[in-house]
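User: Hey, my collaborator sent me this sequence without any context and asked if I could get a structure. I don't really work with proteins. Can you help?
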Amino acid sequence: MLPYSSMFSSGFLWGTYGLLQENPAIWAPNLPAIVLGFVFTVIFAMHAPKEANWLPGTVRMHIVGAALSCAFVLSLAIMLDTESAAFALGWYGTIVVVIMFYGYVVLRPYRIAQNVFMVSPYVGS
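Assistant: No problem. I've predicted the 3D structure and written it out in structure-token form, which is a compact way to encode the shape of the chain:
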């Protein structure tokens, strides 16, 4: 996902986990990620060019991915008892973090071979 949509969905995931654990040290720091990730995603989606071929996928795909991730988190939190939901979200969050950080390592050889490391058109404008 895009950095903004992943910031929103990750903040939502860990914020929900913190609420289930009743631990403000977990959910409180994720409130800015939820709010700012949502705002930045909306702003980016409004201003991203339709022909943005430098994205991995489309803007719509990233928004749908974030929405599905949040729906999955909410469904776990609502359908399971608190302890089971916190356990499942903890594991889901760990897997998401590993995928988010490992994705760059996996894509790096491809990006170098394709010379995809380019400056965003928004830089300096």
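In plain terms: The CA atoms of residues 47 and 92 lie 32 Å apart. You can pass these tokens on to your collaborator as they are.
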